[in-house]
Amino acid sequence: MGKKWRWGVILDAGSSGTRLHIYRWKDPERARHDTPKDELHHLPKLVTEKKWTKKIRPGVSTFGDKPTEVGRDHLQSLIDHALDVIPEDKIKDTPIFLMATAGMRLLPQLQQTALTREICTYLRRNTQFSLPDCDLHIQVIPGETEGLYGWIATNYLLGGFDNPDMHRHGKGHHTYGFLDMGGASAQIAFAPNATEADKHANDLKLLRLRTLDGAPSEHKVFTATWLGFGVNQAREAYIENLKELYGTPDSHELPDPCMPKGLRTTLRGDPVDGPDSDDLTLIGTGVFDECLKQTHPLLGKDKPCNDSPCLLNGQHVPAIDFDVNHFVGVSEYWHTTHGVFGGKDDKAYDFTTYQKRVEEFCTKDWDALQSKIDARKKYDMKNAQEACFKASWLINVLHEGIGIPRIGLEKMPAYNVSKGALENAKDKGFLDPFQPFNKIDGIEVSWTLGKMVLYAAGQIPPKSGDDRFPVGFGSNIAGPAPPDFQFAGSTWRPIGQGNGTFEDDDDWGDRAEDLLDKAREKSATSGLFIFFLLFFFLLYIFRKKERRIRLYGKIHKIVHHRSRRPGGGGSPRRGSGGLSSLIHKLSGGRSSGGPYERVMEEGQADLFELGDVEQDEYSDSSEGSLSSRRSRLGLSSGLATPKLNVVEPRFDALALPTSSAAFDRSGLVVRTESRERLFPAPNLQMLNAGKRSRAGSPTRLKSPLMSPLQED
């Protein structure tokens, strides 16, 4: 892949499994050069692909009592996948993070420490990824941090950061709230309105990003987490409540209104075939209204609130102004609304429509549902068995806990936005008080993206005088960096030459590889794939003059060498004429005499300077040295002339023929005359006087017989 790219690897170690995410973005120096000036206030543009992700089960937390096995038995397959994606020469420059969430938070502190240390040791010993700080790169992150990263990812993808004018929600507000729910915990993150922000300033996090122009971008965000409020942990608490309500020493069955009628499972959710099991069994009754009543106490709304206002479990949250705070829900919010009950064309969450679908499903007999699920083969049995409980839990958390207005039942606030922006936002559901999402513009909404956006922003050099404001987050305290400030972990070290010039070989290589990947995926036969492979290989090889000349030189050397061997087919001219001529035409060269072939063969190219060098699209077009201007003039006028000193001994040394016929055959007479028209005679004399220096020539950097400059 191209030299202009930066890469990042992050492992999301959740409660049910570990998922690998890989992101790529332009080197900030290159991005700043390529981006129009009116867009330099944007954040770096990160990209990812579905094939770059991989998830394995179970989670890292299952290795709590056997930490030494986590690397070999769990992480190695993810590392191998990352190495298949990221170019080998980029590995050392690529940071790797493993950040564990709710599953690890439930482990004792001793096991957490043992696991994180073992993971860091394993990655350092077995990979070359950048891992300078174990505490920063390998950690169990608090739920508040997870929520903050999710808030960054959401607003980054929706455009709340880069285009605030297109996302005016009223009252000077232009960002979106973030809701996440996993198996063990749930998070909320949002920027309160101005009144609430002033009132609860000590409860907010100071987040600082940096845009491509080097300017700091600050936001004040409230984040909170509820451990135990994920769907799996909530389900366990729900089962315990059922045992207290209906369980007796002699009973073997518990009625469960949150399962379809007639469904029988164990307490863990495994299906039970008949009523003769000796284990405690759940029996679905399919009464969804009762299910809502049974899950409501799990919200903890009756817990004392020591710092008003509170939402769930007596935990303080600033008042939410739904006039301006519009929330995006991910993970279980998406799967539970768009899984068993979701419609394919649903653009927004509608409480009335959603609850109607849930009730229709959850009140039916399990036998009837099971036959339909088997026929469609769309949802596995476990998801269908637990769908009613998850739906009831989501409805209670959203509307009874957080207070999201019920669309279709409650009056909605007016939106203070332009008509055009409003219509655009309505199509995407962005102005609803709550909208579940899985992807935005093809990129999964994940907190891991937010972490990598923060890291990429930290690679941008700050404006002069703004280096006091680092990228990261911490307490909302005045000053460049509060005492608890968590830095992004990145520095502004450019990949390129640092002089504003860049090689342009990368784009074609990246495009060719992308097209090849698509060909591999879409090709129905191996023959079609081979055709695409050869086509793009030839396109990549022959796209530039210097590449054609380099390839021609190598092949011609082989052909020329074979023609000289005993029995090699006669004289050199007879032995290489057909193939050599064809290769020379393919490589874009003219028919040349023996002396030029001998130079290419014997490595005496230092007597030539190739004039047909493609101008670097990133070099300055108005300024530059004489040699660079000459190179551009040569390019525009079609000149591709080996520059020969008009000193007689040099011709003798090269054994060049001096007859006019020889010059005509090589095209040197015409091309020398063209150069004389471009450069006055004094300039030619000056350039050819004595021994000419080639150190500053841009064409020398492109010479096919020289090794490219090594990147720092």
Automatic annotation (TrEMBL):
GO MF term set: ATP binding; GDP phosphatase activity; ribonucleoside triphosphate phosphatase activity; UDP phosphatase activity
Residues reported in the UniProt entry to bind ATP: 183-187
Keywords recorded for this protein, A-Z: ATP-binding, Hydrolase, Membrane, Nucleotide-binding, Transmembrane, Transmembrane helix
Keyword Lipoprotein belongs to the record: no
Annotated spans, Disordered: 562-597, 681-712
Gene Ontology CC: Golgi apparatus; membrane
Listed transmembrane segments: 524-542
Active site, per annotation: 146
UniProt GO BP: CTP metabolic process; UDP catabolic process
Stretches with biased composition (Gly residues): 566-578
PANTHER family per the UniProt record, alphabetical: ADENOSINE/GUANOSINE DIPHOSPHATASE, NUCLEOSIDE-DIPHOSPHATASE MIG-23
Family membership noted in the UniProt record: Belongs to the GDA1/CD39 NTPase family.
Protein name: Nucleoside phosphatase family-domain-containing protein
Organism of derivation: Diplogelasinospora grovesii
